[in-house]
Design a protein that fits this description.
Elements (H helix, E strand, L loop, with lengths): L1 H18 L1 H25 L3 H14 L4 H13 L3 H17 L8 H11 L5 E8 L8 E4 L2 E2 L9 E3 L2 E8 L6 E7 L4 E7 L7 H5 L3 H4 L4 H40 L1 E3 L2 E3 L5 H34 L16 E9 L2 E9 L1
Parallel strand pairs: 1-7
Antiparallel strand pairs: 1-4, 2-3, 2-5, 5-6, 8-9, 10-11
Helix pairs in contact: 2-3, 2-4, 3-4, 4-5, 5-6, 9-10
């Protein structure tokens, strides 16, 4: 019996020895945390909130039960304009204060919730959408240098104010990059489109029947026909003008000049009218020929141009044919259009 009693005492002693360092370790961690907390308070009073946050974070990591460090972190972030980070830490403080039994933290959960709600109008949000790239495993989004969980695409995320960089990696040579300058209360939505993949070699080798078809010859012929008609019309107009000028000059010459041997004898002051009449007569003949040739050529080209659609002949026999011939007319050159059916 005594043997078992001695064994029991030995086991209890070992258990007590094993548990003894735990409180000592906890006490040492709390002391270190208090030192870091005091350092953080000094930095904050000196206006160095960024460095103070680092000290408070270390204190909180060593001794999570010290909620004062978390509260100072939230307050410093709010002073720095990091409203999204401050809201997250205020909410963490609210949850931790509700779970704490320390009397000194009484009422802290209400304070934290109030600060959390007060920053709702100041915080900025960012929503990222990706269009395209379905089924492509290499498509991923990186936000501020950190990979973004695909489940967060399309979700409004609170982010601190300032510039944010969104990168879309899709397997190309370089990512698609979008930069957003987030302001207080701003709600930004960014949509990134994944470029379509390049066509495969098989797709490149396949010929499109419509694309491979030769160009329509009727287009060029019809265009030339309309151009010729335009030239002919211009020649006709110029002919009318030249005839009108010749008529005016002829009238002045007949009134002021005398005829001798079939020719007009004009005084010096009417010599210009006489020369103008002769020039206008020559130009009228030239323009008349250009007009006739242009109109005849234009009509011929339009008749001979393919219609662009296969049509069956209206009757059995010789195909329709047209020809333009030039012949000498009394007083100039003429044209004759022959159409045979």
């Amino acid at each position: 019996m005594r043997f078992f009693e001695r064994q029991l005492v030995t086991l209890c002693g070992a258990a007590l020895l094993a548990a003894a360092p735990a409180p000592a370790f906890a006490a040492g961690a709390e002391e270190d945390a208090k030192t870091l907390f005091a350092r953080g308070r000094e930095l904050r009073r000196a206006g160095q909130c960024e460095q103070a946050v680092i000290a408070f974070r270390r204190a909180l990591e060593i001794y999570p039960e010290g909620l004062g460090a978390l509260r100072n972190i939230a307050e410093c972030e709010e002073e720095l304009g990091l409203y999204a980070s401050a809201r997250r830490d205020w909410w963490d403080l609210r949850r931790a204060a509700l779970q704490s039994n320390e009397a000194k933290y009484a009422g802290w959960s209400e304070d934290a919730e109030g600060r959390y709600r007060a920053l709702n109008e100041k915080v900025g949000t960012l929503t990222v959408h990706v269009r395209g790239g379905d089924g492509r495993a290499e498509v991923r989004v990186v936000l501020d240098g950190k990979p973004m969980d695909p489940r967060l695409l399309g979700v409004e995320l609170e982010r601190d104010l300032g510039q944010h960089t969104i990168e879309l990696f899709y397997g190309g040579a370089a990512p698609i990059t979008e930069r957003v300058d987030l302001q207080a209360g701003m709600r930004r939505v960014v949509t990134l489109a994944v470029p379509a993949p390049p066509p495969s070699r098989d797709a490149l080798g396949a010929r499109d029947p419509l694309a491979a078809a030769p160009p329509d010859a009727s287009s060029g012929v019809r265009t030339a026909g309309f151009v010729a008609l335009g030239v002919g019309g211009a020649g006709a107009i110029a002919t009318v003008v030249a005839v009108a000028v010749r008529a005016g000059a002829l009238s002045a010459v007949e009134d002021g000049c005398s005829r001798a041997g079939g020719a007009y004898v004009c005084p010096p002051e009417l010599q210009g009218e006489y020369d103008t009449g002769r020039t206008a007569s020559t130009l009228a003949s030239v323009f008349a020929g250009v007009g006739l040739v242009g109109l005849g050529t234009g009509v011929t080209l339009l008749l001979l141009s393919p219609s662009g659609e296969a049509t069956a002949p209206t009757s059995v026999g010789e195909p329709t044919a047209a020809a333009l011939s030039l012949s000498a007319w009394p007083g100039g050159v003429g044209s004759r259009l022959l159409v045979r059916f």
